[in-house]
Amino acid sequence: MDTLRFHFTSPPWLATSQFRLAYKRLLLPIVMISLIISDTTRAVTVNTLSDAFWAVSSYVALTLAIYHYLALLFSKQNRLVDLYRGSRGHQVLFAALLGALPGCGGAIIVTTQFVTGRVGFGAMVAVLTSTMGDAAFLLLASQPSVGVAVVGVGVLVGCLSGWLVNCIHDDSFLRPLVISDSNHLGCNRESSTGIEQKMINLQGAFWKWLLAPAAIIALLGSFQVDINPLLSLPNMTIEWIGSILIIVSMLLWSLTKEINDYESTVTEDTKQISSHPIQKAAQDTNFVTAWVIVAFLLFELVTFFGQIDLAATFSDWGVWMPLVGLAIGMLPGCGPQILVTSLYISGAAPLSAQLANAISNDGDALFPAIALAPKAALVATLYSALPALIVGYSFYFLCEV
To answer: What range does the record give for the signal peptide (predicted)?
Structure first.
């Protein structure tokens, strides 16, 4: 009987396959493909995905590429990190400026250095108040003037909050007694598996070759130039190309990281310090794009099937919208904040909600803060919520009512 016994052993390729339940990101490209296959949703999906690629992803990729090249240039001198340790007031100022840098890097530097005793609690409040995380990339790329204004308000409010906190608390307020090694908690904190690294490399190659042409097409589109007749292409050609490219980019993105918990879902992908700037830009671009797609598709499909004007619906919420933006901003991670910014860009959320969210959101920096100094993280988050409430409702009553 032993010779008839059947033993099932997973083949090696399946044991290391990206197509496991842990890779839940695959649901996004699967849903996108399904919506395009369906006759009912094909038109609205193609137009939505095309807009997401040409009008958002292309600009975000260009902005991120410039940002990472500049970061590479200035990282050799790291003078800001040294200067903000000079005095309590300088700490707050430079912490707010570091928080204003798009992405998680500046905020995580200050947060982890608070834990190690290099900066005070006021600096931590300042950086969590001023940071927008990856949502800043999206806002700056889509609406540069508004993005600069929102970031500027964040820096101003972050400085005022930090200086006020310095008057109330000493530098070691709620700092844990046991100092952990926090160097591994930054953006560049872990390596990838072999298969994941191949997908990461393909993401870089994808944007390396598409960055220039995509940026040109996006720029022409911003000037209301119809690309199809300009290039003598059949109707809807550029829309289909954009849809196919964004699906390819999401397939590559979905195979680069396992999703095990909330943090792994809403935080940006880890990047190696030695990675090429284009590679880093590609990883950030695809993360931002994924959340933009979720917001755009949700907006368009609800409008399409429910015949609901979300912009008008949210306008009925009126006075509650800044509070909604603030509440979502208190969630850790960049993903929920990108959703709010996407809704603002699409016209569904007012600027008051965007301001409240930008000031209250702490991005990925809240995760190391929670891990290393949970009490300080909670109090700092509450402190950043107070100015968010004031600024959001001040703008609402002054400019939107």
So the answer is: none
Domain housing 59 = 40-175+202-259+276-400
Among 270, 246, 249, 345, smallest CA distance to 103 is for 270
Nearest 5°: the CA angle 28, 65, 243 is: 35
Domain membership flag for residue 270: no
Say how many domains are in the chain. Answer: 1
Q: What is the pLDDT of residues 36-94, one digit of tens each?
A: 999 999 999 999 999 999 988 998 888 888 877 876 665 554 555 555 556 788 889 98
Distance CA 313, CA 225 (A): 31
Mean pLDDT (the chain) is 83
The SS3 of residue 223 is coil
**For the residues of 92-150, what is the DSSP string, one character each?**
HHHHHHHHHSSSSHHHHHHHHHHHTTSS-HHHHHHHHHH--TTHHHHHHHH-HHHHHHH
User: What would the two tokens of residue 31 be?
Assistant: 């849903």
pLDDT of res. 314:
72
- Tell me how far apart the alpha carbons of residues 228 and 21 are, in angstroms, rounded to a whole number: 40
Report which DSSP code applies to 361.
-
Q: Which of 163, 216, 173, 208 is nearest to 64 (CA)?
A: 208
Exposure string of 312-334, with b = 16+ CB inside 10 Å and e = fewer, is eebeeeeeebbbbbbbbbbbbbb
Look at phi and psi of residue 186 and say left if phi exceeds 0, alpha if psi is from -120 to 50, else beta: beta
The count of other CB atoms within 10 Å of the CB of residue 190 is 9
- Is residue 28 in some structural domain? no
Buried-state track 130-147, b at ≥16 Cβ within 10 A, e below 16: bbbbbbbbbbbbbbeebb
Which residues, including other chains, have CB under 8 Å from residue 273's CB and lie 6 or more apart? Answer: 188
2 falls within a domain: no
Distance CA(287)–CA(134), nearest Å, equals 9
* Distance between CA atoms of residues 108 and 123, nearest Å: 12
In a domain, 236, yes or no: yes
